[in-house]
Specification:
The protein has 188 residues and is an alpha+beta fold. The chain has four helices and five strands; from the N terminus they run ααβββββαα. It is globular.
Length: 188
Protein backbone atom coordinates (compact mmCIF):
# COMPACT_ATOMS: atom_id res chain seq x y z
CA UNK A 1 0.00 0.00 0.00
CA UNK A 2 1.41 3.38 -0.95
CA UNK A 3 1.36 5.99 1.72
CA UNK A 4 0.88 9.60 0.75
CA UNK A 5 1.57 12.56 2.89
CA UNK A 6 -1.35 14.95 3.33
CA UNK A 7 0.23 17.40 0.90
CA UNK A 8 0.44 14.86 -1.95
CA UNK A 9 -2.74 12.84 -1.48
CA UNK A 10 -4.60 12.45 -4.82
CA UNK A 11 -7.91 14.31 -4.82
CA UNK A 12 -10.83 13.70 -7.17
CA UNK A 13 -12.17 16.99 -8.43
CA UNK A 14 -15.00 15.50 -10.50
CA UNK A 15 -18.49 16.70 -9.52
CA UNK A 16 -19.86 13.33 -10.69
CA UNK A 17 -19.55 10.58 -8.16
CA UNK A 18 -21.29 7.20 -8.20
CA UNK A 19 -24.45 8.48 -6.50
CA UNK A 20 -24.81 11.38 -8.93
CA UNK A 21 -24.34 9.02 -11.88
CA UNK A 22 -27.00 6.59 -10.63
CA UNK A 23 -29.43 9.44 -10.00
CA UNK A 24 -28.94 10.87 -13.50
CA UNK A 25 -29.24 7.41 -15.08
CA UNK A 26 -32.50 6.67 -13.23
CA UNK A 27 -33.92 10.09 -14.14
CA UNK A 28 -33.07 9.49 -17.80
CA UNK A 29 -34.67 6.05 -17.79
CA UNK A 30 -37.82 7.42 -16.11
CA UNK A 31 -38.12 10.09 -18.78
CA UNK A 32 -37.50 7.74 -21.73
CA UNK A 33 -39.17 4.46 -20.82
CA UNK A 34 -42.96 4.25 -20.84
CA UNK A 35 -44.64 3.74 -17.50
CA UNK A 36 -46.17 0.34 -17.02
CA UNK A 37 -49.90 0.55 -16.51
CA UNK A 38 -52.17 -2.20 -15.39
CA UNK A 39 -55.84 -2.35 -14.53
CA UNK A 40 -56.93 -1.77 -10.94
CA UNK A 41 -60.18 -1.00 -9.10
CA UNK A 42 -60.44 2.55 -10.44
CA UNK A 43 -59.92 1.24 -13.97
CA UNK A 44 -62.57 -1.44 -13.45
CA UNK A 45 -65.09 1.08 -12.10
CA UNK A 46 -64.41 3.67 -14.83
CA UNK A 47 -64.47 1.09 -17.63
CA UNK A 48 -67.71 -0.49 -16.42
CA UNK A 49 -69.52 2.87 -16.25
CA UNK A 50 -68.12 3.85 -19.67
CA UNK A 51 -69.24 0.57 -21.25
CA UNK A 52 -72.71 0.77 -19.67
CA UNK A 53 -73.15 4.28 -21.09
CA UNK A 54 -72.06 3.31 -24.60
CA UNK A 55 -73.45 -0.24 -24.82
CA UNK A 56 -76.55 -0.34 -22.60
CA UNK A 57 -78.07 -3.79 -22.21
CA UNK A 58 -75.51 -5.49 -24.46
CA UNK A 59 -73.63 -8.58 -23.33
CA UNK A 60 -70.00 -7.71 -23.94
CA UNK A 61 -67.03 -10.00 -23.87
CA UNK A 62 -63.70 -8.32 -23.10
CA UNK A 63 -60.70 -9.94 -24.80
CA UNK A 64 -57.28 -8.82 -23.60
CA UNK A 65 -54.87 -7.94 -26.43
CA UNK A 66 -52.03 -6.30 -24.45
CA UNK A 67 -52.03 -7.71 -20.92
CA UNK A 68 -50.62 -6.16 -17.74
CA UNK A 69 -49.15 -3.03 -19.19
CA UNK A 70 -47.33 -4.71 -22.05
CA UNK A 71 -45.79 -2.00 -24.24
CA UNK A 72 -46.61 0.45 -21.44
CA UNK A 73 -50.30 0.16 -22.29
CA UNK A 74 -53.26 -2.18 -21.65
CA UNK A 75 -55.71 -2.96 -24.47
CA UNK A 76 -58.94 -4.96 -24.66
CA UNK A 77 -61.16 -5.86 -27.63
CA UNK A 78 -64.91 -5.46 -26.95
CA UNK A 79 -66.90 -8.24 -28.60
CA UNK A 80 -70.59 -9.13 -28.80
CA UNK A 81 -71.16 -12.39 -30.65
CA UNK A 82 -69.04 -12.35 -33.81
CA UNK A 83 -68.86 -8.53 -33.91
CA UNK A 84 -66.06 -6.31 -32.59
CA UNK A 85 -67.79 -3.29 -31.05
CA UNK A 86 -64.64 -1.41 -30.16
CA UNK A 87 -61.53 -1.34 -27.99
CA UNK A 88 -60.70 -0.19 -24.48
CA UNK A 89 -57.23 1.29 -23.97
CA UNK A 90 -55.52 2.16 -20.69
CA UNK A 91 -52.37 4.23 -21.08
CA UNK A 92 -50.45 6.95 -19.25
CA UNK A 93 -49.24 10.38 -20.23
CA UNK A 94 -46.60 12.65 -18.71
CA UNK A 95 -47.76 15.53 -16.56
CA UNK A 96 -45.53 18.26 -15.16
CA UNK A 97 -44.29 16.17 -12.23
CA UNK A 98 -45.87 12.73 -12.56
CA UNK A 99 -47.53 10.54 -15.18
CA UNK A 100 -51.30 10.14 -15.15
CA UNK A 101 -53.40 7.20 -16.35
CA UNK A 102 -56.34 7.57 -18.68
CA UNK A 103 -58.87 5.30 -20.32
CA UNK A 104 -59.92 5.54 -23.98
CA UNK A 105 -62.94 3.91 -25.60
CA UNK A 106 -62.28 3.36 -29.32
CA UNK A 107 -64.67 2.46 -32.13
CA UNK A 108 -63.90 -0.55 -34.36
CA UNK A 109 -62.35 1.97 -36.81
CA UNK A 110 -59.98 3.19 -34.04
CA UNK A 111 -61.75 6.52 -33.49
CA UNK A 112 -61.91 7.97 -29.99
CA UNK A 113 -65.42 7.68 -28.54
CA UNK A 114 -64.62 8.82 -25.00
CA UNK A 115 -61.64 9.56 -22.75
CA UNK A 116 -61.57 9.54 -18.95
CA UNK A 117 -58.64 10.28 -16.68
CA UNK A 118 -58.50 7.43 -14.15
CA UNK A 119 -55.51 8.42 -11.96
CA UNK A 120 -54.21 11.99 -11.79
CA UNK A 121 -51.46 11.94 -9.18
CA UNK A 122 -50.16 15.52 -9.19
CA UNK A 123 -51.50 18.72 -7.65
CA UNK A 124 -50.80 20.68 -10.84
CA UNK A 125 -52.58 20.32 -14.18
CA UNK A 126 -55.61 18.38 -12.91
CA UNK A 127 -57.79 20.43 -15.30
CA UNK A 128 -56.82 17.91 -17.97
CA UNK A 129 -59.29 15.49 -16.31
CA UNK A 130 -62.27 17.73 -17.18
CA UNK A 131 -64.88 15.76 -19.15
CA UNK A 132 -65.74 18.90 -21.11
CA UNK A 133 -62.13 19.42 -22.22
CA UNK A 134 -61.63 15.70 -23.00
CA UNK A 135 -64.80 15.63 -25.15
CA UNK A 136 -62.99 17.50 -27.95
CA UNK A 137 -61.06 14.30 -28.71
CA UNK A 138 -64.23 12.47 -29.80
CA UNK A 139 -63.71 11.27 -33.38
CA UNK A 140 -59.91 11.66 -33.25
CA UNK A 141 -58.24 8.89 -35.28
CA UNK A 142 -54.56 9.54 -34.61
CA UNK A 143 -53.87 10.07 -38.31
CA UNK A 144 -51.88 13.19 -37.38
CA UNK A 145 -50.69 14.54 -34.02
CA UNK A 146 -52.79 17.25 -32.42
CA UNK A 147 -51.19 20.19 -30.67
CA UNK A 148 -52.48 22.20 -27.72
CA UNK A 149 -53.52 25.68 -28.85
CA UNK A 150 -54.10 24.51 -32.42
CA UNK A 151 -56.38 21.46 -32.81
CA UNK A 152 -56.94 21.19 -29.05
CA UNK A 153 -58.01 24.01 -26.73
CA UNK A 154 -55.31 25.18 -24.34
CA UNK A 155 -55.83 24.74 -20.61
CA UNK A 156 -54.58 27.36 -18.19
CA UNK A 157 -52.45 25.62 -15.57
CA UNK A 158 -52.37 22.30 -17.45
CA UNK A 159 -50.30 23.01 -20.55
CA UNK A 160 -47.75 20.26 -19.88
CA UNK A 161 -50.40 17.64 -19.01
CA UNK A 162 -52.52 18.59 -22.03
CA UNK A 163 -49.51 18.39 -24.36
CA UNK A 164 -48.50 15.09 -22.79
CA UNK A 165 -51.96 13.64 -23.34
CA UNK A 166 -52.03 14.79 -26.98
CA UNK A 167 -48.63 13.27 -27.68
CA UNK A 168 -49.34 10.01 -25.81
CA UNK A 169 -52.78 9.56 -27.39
CA UNK A 170 -51.31 9.96 -30.88
CA UNK A 171 -48.54 7.42 -30.12
CA UNK A 172 -51.03 4.99 -28.53
CA UNK A 173 -53.42 5.11 -31.49
CA UNK A 174 -50.55 4.52 -33.93
CA UNK A 175 -49.48 1.55 -31.80
CA UNK A 176 -53.04 0.15 -31.59
CA UNK A 177 -53.59 0.52 -35.34
CA UNK A 178 -50.23 -1.12 -36.11
CA UNK A 179 -50.95 -4.07 -33.79
CA UNK A 180 -54.45 -4.64 -35.15
CA UNK A 181 -53.28 -4.41 -38.79
CA UNK A 182 -50.46 -6.87 -38.04
CA UNK A 183 -52.95 -9.24 -36.35
CA UNK A 184 -55.28 -8.98 -39.35
CA UNK A 185 -52.48 -9.76 -41.81
CA UNK A 186 -51.21 -12.69 -39.72
CA UNK A 187 -54.75 -13.99 -39.25
CA UNK A 188 -54.80 -13.35 -35.46
Amino acid sequence: MTRYSKAFRPVSRSPFNGTTFLFLLSALLFAVLPAQVSPDRKFDKASESMLLAHFPGQALQRQVIWPDGARGRYLERLVSGPDTLGYLLLTSAPGRYERFDYLVLLSPRIEVQEIRVVHYRSDHGYQVASARWLSQFKGYTGSAPWKVGQEVDALSGATISASGLCRDLFEALVQVRSTLERDTVSGG
